């Protein structure tokens, strides 16, 4: 059974390419859409919209839909900051 990749396992060059050029590595591309859909549904559930995947979003106020997207963005930025800080810290430790 193969181990799933985590940000800690990914080589710095892969993260650098993905983060700064906007490109997703080919081997990860098939996972982007389902991962984002799952993340969106989890965020909606946290906001009290439990069946978001099957919900008619045309009936939702834009404020609720915006809260879902805004919450996702906030968490993705926090995740990216953690990954970048981890790599920065490790580069500093190696260079010292």
Automatic annotation (TrEMBL):
Keyword Cell inner membrane: no
Keywords on record: Hydrolase
Pfam families: SASP
GO molecular function: double-stranded DNA binding; hydrolase activity
InterPro entries assigned to the protein according to its UniProt record, in alphabetical order: SASP_alpha/beta-type (IPR001448), SASP_sf_alpha/beta (IPR038300)
Single Gene Ontology BP annotation: DNA topological change
Function: SASP are bound to spore DNA. They are double-stranded DNA-binding proteins that cause DNA to change to an a-like conformation. They protect the DNA backbone from chemical and enzymatic cleavage and are thus involved in dormant spore's high resistance to UV light.
Entry protein name: Alpha/beta hydrolase
Native species: Desulforamulus ferrireducens
């Amino acid at each position: 059974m193969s181990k799933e990749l985590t940000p800690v396992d990914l080589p710095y060059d892969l993260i650098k390419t993905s983060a700064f050029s906007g490109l997703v590595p080919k081997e990860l591309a098939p996972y982007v859409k389902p991962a984002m859909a799952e993340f969106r549904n989890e965020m909606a559930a946290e906001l009290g919209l439990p069946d978001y995947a099957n919900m008619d979003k045309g009936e939702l106020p834009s404020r609720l839909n915006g809260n879902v997207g805004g919450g996702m963005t906030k968490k993705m930025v926090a995740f990216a900051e953690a990954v970048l800080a981890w790599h920065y810290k490790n580069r500093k430790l190696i260079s010292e």
